[in-house]
Design a protein that fits this description.
It contains 21 helices and 11 strands. With 456 residues, it is of the alpha/beta class. The protein folds into 4 domains: 126 residues, Rossmann fold; 67 residues, no CATH class; 67 residues, Orthogonal Bundle (Helicase, Ruva Protein, domain 3), CATH 1.10.8; 156 residues, Zinc Finger, Delta Prime, domain 3, CATH 1.20.272. Helix 4 packs antiparallel against helix 5, helix 6 crosses helix 7 and helix 14 packs antiparallel against helix 15. The chain is elongated.
Length: 456
């Protein structure tokens, strides 16, 4: 079956669900949350036996639960974390790490090499006790690194013997579950395994088999910034409650901003802050500022909006962030800020000023009354048609794009006079020459923007 984003609608009825459901994601909290919702959806009738195994549960007990029918119900749901089974590194990286550790030498290097090789063999379903040369050749071929087969064989020759069973038995049990033939019109034989894993790597054989015969659900925190922020607030409050720590609402908002609303960094920083606060402690906004490095990106459209509001303080603050080396986004697209970034930024600015000038001039020529406070529906009905119809002699409209984007551009342009925007556009050539002659970028662009906002 296909890999799909998690939702209750993505989980079929019990009889229509494959025997193995894998829930993945990069944040443990959201993976557990999605797995719990999938479990509740499958057990909705109330007649299913639910068995949840913790990380320290014996593998043979889990295997028995997967392979043997329930004595109390015709339906059984077995939930467990298989991150240790699928691993967190791709086989290719494991082989590279093993070779690097072996080259390093010494007891520590040998120990690390053996650890990586065992993980590699598990990921590729290769025996540790087979012929070293044959096993090394098979592994190197699978990860397309045949040149390292000889060195891998050398490591395998000295690999200490290890007791079989354990994870290997659990992996075998899952394969049996996947391969069982259910009754007609059903997808399973009465047992469904709900597996959780944090970012399992590609190239693991068992993962490929689950993707082919089972169902893989990706735990997502939301389709937009608002939904993501709501999910991150839920994460922070739930983890804080478990640790008997309180989070100021302002602290959560500050942390969302400082981690750029990215779930994995946010979750990692929450864990650090909870550890720092201790049981019964409280995390304030000032604590987030003191404890968490600001890794947030700068968004160009927010920068443009500040220019449109003629807010000199925010414009200069955002300009400093744009020049600080942090990531810069244009919507969802991350921009390249290496090399000639100051000159490129000037080009983006002049492009925006040019669009504002075209729009401002068209509004003046058409005699259209528009102010920044106009509601969007009214703008669509009364103003937008004047901005999207072709203008003679060019045969093109002064504004192109989605209606809301044109609305925001009109808001920015409405606070300037056409003459002010024209002066700024003419002055850009001198600024470009100054930047190319090694003028200080931040100071040069600050003066340029200050003159634009002041209308001089």
């Amino acid at each position: 079956m296909a890999r799909v984003l998690f939702s209750e609608n993505a989980v079929p009825a019990f009889d229509k669900t494959p025997p193995v459901v894998l829930v993945t994601g990069d944040v443990d909290f959201f993976v557990e949350e999605a797995a719990g919702r999938a479990r509740d959806a499958l057990a909705g009738g109330g007649d299913a036996e639910v068995l949840r195994f913790e990380d320290d549960a014996p593998s043979d007990a889990i295997s028995d639960a997967l392979l043997n029918r329930s004595l109390f119900s015709p339906r059984r749901i077995v939930e467990l974390d298989v991150s240790r089974l699928l691993g967190t590194e791709s086989p290719g990286k494991l082989l590279g790490a093993a070779v690097e550790a072996w080259d390093r030498g010494g007891p520590g290097g040998r120990r690390d090499a053996f650890r990586h090789v065992r993980a590699l063999l598990s990921a590729l379903d290769l025996p540790a006790d087979g012929d070293p040369a044959e096993t090394a050749a098979a592994a190197a071929k699978k990860v397309r690194r045949k040149e390292e087969a000889e060195l891998l064989a050398e490591i395998l020759k000295e690999l200490p013997a290890e007791r079989s069973g354990g994870l290997a038995a659990l992996k075998a049990a899952l394969r049996v579950l996947l391969e069982r033939e259910p009754e007609p019109e059903k997808k399973n034989d009465g047992t469904i395994a709900i597996l959780r894993a944090i970012d399992p790597p590609a190239g693991v054989d068992l993962l490929a088999e689950i993707e082919e015969r089972g169902l893989v659900l990706e735990a997502s925190v939301g389709e937009d910034a608002a939904a993501t922020a709501a999910a991150l607030r839920r994460l922070a409050n739930a983890l804080a409650k478990d640790r008997d720590v309180s989070f100021e609402p302002a602290a959560v908002e500050r942390l969302i901003a400082r981690t750029d609303g990215k779930p994995a960094p946010f979750a990692a920083e929450v864990a650090k802050l909870l550890e720092w606060a201790g049981k019964g402690g409280k995390v304030r906004a000032a604590d987030v500022v003191a404890q968490v490095e600001d890794e947030s990106s700068e968004e160009m459209y927010s920068f443009y909006d500040a220019i449109g509001r003629r807010d000199a303080g925010e414009v200069l603050s955002r300009l400093e962030r744009l020049m600080s080396g942090r990531p810069v986004r244009m919507g969802r697209e991350e921009m390249e800020t290496e090399g000639i970034w100051p000159t490129r930024l000037l080009g983006l600015l002049t492009g925006e000023i040019r669009r504002m000038l075209l729009l401002r001039s068209r509004l003046d020529e058409a005699g259209v009354v528009f102010s920044a406070g106009m509601p969007f529906p009214r703008f669509q009905n009364q103003v937008l048609p004047h901005l999207t119809s072709p203008v003679r002699p060019f045969g093109r409209p002064p504004a192109q794009g989605k209606p809301y984007g044109i609305f925001k551009l009109a808001e920015r342009a409405s606070r300037y006079k056409a003459a002010e925007l024209a002066r700024a556009l003419a002055r850009a050539a001198d600024v470009d020459v100054a930047l190319k002659n090694s003028a200080p970028p931040l100071e040069t662009l600050s003066v340029y923007l200050g003159q634009l906002i002041a209308g001089t």
